[in-house]
């Protein structure tokens, strides 16, 4: 079962294999974190019209991403740093999907969720909540508009595929 779990949660071992020694791993985790938190801050900035509110929101995200509660994980050679970064990336992707609602944004959200799920074991449980929520939104959108929203269907279907893949890898 442990071998299956390690194979399932491939993102951290893959990164560590690609970058080699511990100082490089720490640097890579910090860079990935900076990129993911920056993407989240940029997407939040695009969501807010009021200039002052937008600047305060971006500052708050930047401060959170740079806080020691977040950055201290970069120095641990564990999956927590990547899990936090993947969470910020997934949040940015879902915010973008809500803003632009395109097939590309749906695919990006599914991709970010895939990375998020295959980073930490507890994300597998949370994936069920994400899938249920998105499928609920799909159903409500269908009921309200009497038509299928293609980007929303791609998001829902993609998340179901990620869940099936994750479940199959656990069996």
Give a description of the structure.
This protein is mainly alpha-helical. It contains nine helices and no strands. The longest helix has 26 residues, at 22-47. The protein is flat.
Please supply descriptive tags for the structure shown above:
single chain, 171 residues, mainly alpha, 9 helices, 0% strand, flat, disordered N terminus
Q: How are the SSEs placed, and which strands pair?
A:
Layout: H1 2-8, H2 11-19, H3 22-47, H4 51-66, H5 68-71, H6 80-100, H7 103-117, H8 122-145, H9 150-170
Helix pairs in contact: 3-4, 3-6, 6-7, 7-9, 8-9
* Distance between the ends: 9 Å
Largest sheet: none
Secondary-structure element series: HHHHHHHHH
Query: How many β-strand stretches?
Result: 0
Helices, by number, come to: 9
Q: What is the general shape? A: flat
Q: Roughly what percent helix? A: over 70%
**Arithmetic mean of pLDDT:** 92
The structural class is mainly alpha
Strand content: under 5%
Low-confidence stretches: 1-6
Tell me the Rg in angstroms: 17 Å
């Amino acid at each position: 079962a442990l071998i299956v779990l390690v194979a399932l949660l491939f993102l951290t071992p893959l990164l560590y294999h690609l970058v080699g020694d511990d100082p490089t791993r720490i640097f890579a985790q910090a860079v990935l974190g900076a990129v993911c938190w920056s993407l989240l801050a940029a997407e939040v900035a695009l969501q807010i019209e009021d200039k002052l509110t937008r600047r305060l929101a971006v500052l708050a995200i930047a401060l959170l991403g740079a806080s020691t509660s977040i950055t201290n994980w970069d120095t641990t050679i564990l999956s927590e740093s990547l899990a936090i970064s993947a969470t910020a990336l997934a949040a940015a992707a879902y915010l973008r999907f809500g803003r632009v609602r395109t097939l590309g944004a749906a695919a990006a959200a599914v991709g970010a969720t895939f990375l998020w799920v295959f980073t930490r074991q507890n994300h597998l449980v949370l994936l069920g909540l994400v899938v249920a929520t998105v499928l609920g939104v799909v159903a409500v959108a269908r009921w309200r508009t009497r038509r299928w929203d293609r980007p929303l269907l791609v998001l829902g279907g993609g998340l179901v595929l990620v869940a099936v893949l994750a479940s199959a890898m656990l069996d």
